[in-house]
Amino acid sequence: MEHRSGFVNILGNPNVGKSTLMNILVGAKLSVTTPKAQTTRHRIMGILTGDGYQIVYSDTPGILNPKYKLQAAMMKSVESALDDADLILYVTDTVESVSKNEEHLARIIASPVQKIIVINKIDLTNQDELEKMVETWSTIAPGVPVLPVSAIKKFNTDLLLREVISRLPSGPPYFPEDQLTDRYDRFFVTEIIRGKIFETYQKEIPYSVEVEIESYTEEPSINRIAAVIYVARDSQKGIIIGHKGSMLKRVGTGARKEMEEFLGKKVFLELYVRVAHEWRDNPRMLKKFGYL
């Protein structure tokens, strides 16, 4: 039986459900998913190995026009995704304007890499509107398949998987069959904390925050983890901590429970808050956090 393997890069604007889609396709929660836009900051790889195929998905940050150096660094991974894929899944949804980030969309469509346009969140529209969207996208990208799905409802995701497999080149697997991602547990621990921050705080706070693991000790029955939450301004530190530490405790409790589920063992978690003034425009801090 012919074996197929390939790299599939998932691109799209913020808040169209790219990360949810990858998590569903891989069958594991690898990317942070929240209702807020721009949740994904790093390029995250998810590996799906099946009977006769291996798909190496890559969830990239949402396409945007950078306002500070952090976003510029995030966009570099988006640019590289156009060059190192066997297939691009361009994800849009039923509420996004087709004119959003037209320049980047034009580059994606012009790329010689195979593409599938995925219209996500079709559970939020009706058949007539959906048919108009499919027609519009077919006009914008002639010859590119357009596939409507609902990632959250798992509608048409099996069909999408079959379409992806059919477009993979022949070849042996790139990774061991039991490998799920290229990232280590420490990375996902920071992502879990950051996800809880996105869920807990409003407005600018989540976008001004970065998380770093200070210590990570694995014992037979428990992992002991200390993490630092960095904020960009002095005023944000008090907001993160909350009255008598109530907000930080809420983040820590939620993150610990999710870590225990992810790691399959008990977790002792300590959280600290520090100020790194305007870290999003500081090359030294961006390098420290793995963006440069």
Protein described:
The protein has a 6-stranded mixed beta sheet, sandwiched between helices. It has a 3-stranded mixed beta sheet with strand order 7-8-9. The longest helix is centred in the last third of the chain and has 18 residues. It contains 9 helices and 9 strands. The protein folds into 2 domains: 163 residues, Rossmann fold; 104 residues, GMP Synthetase, Chain A, domain 3, CATH 3.30.300.20. The chain is α/β, with parallel strands linked by helices and 292 residues long. The mean pLDDT is 88.
Shape label? globular
For the secondary structure, the number of strands is: 9
- Helicity range: 25-40%
| Rg calc | 20 Å
What profile does the largest beta sheet have? 6 strands, mixed
Structurally, the number of domains stands at 2
Overall CATH class of the largest domain: Alpha Beta
Mean pLDDT across the residues is: 88
The CATH topology label of the largest domain is: Rossmann fold
- Number of helix segments? 9
CATH architecture classification name of the largest domain: 3-Layer(aba) Sandwich
In the sheet with the most strands, the strands line up as 2-3-1-4-5-6
Poorly predicted ranges: none
Write down the secondary-structure element order: EHEEHEHEHEHHEEHHEH
Quote the distance from N terminus to C terminus: 42 Å
Query: Structural class of the helices, strands and pairings?
Result: alpha/beta
Write out the CATH superfamily name of the largest domain.
Answer: P-loop containing nucleotide triphosphate hydrolases
Counting copies of identical and different chains, the oligomeric state is single chain
Estimated share of beta-strand residues: 15-25%
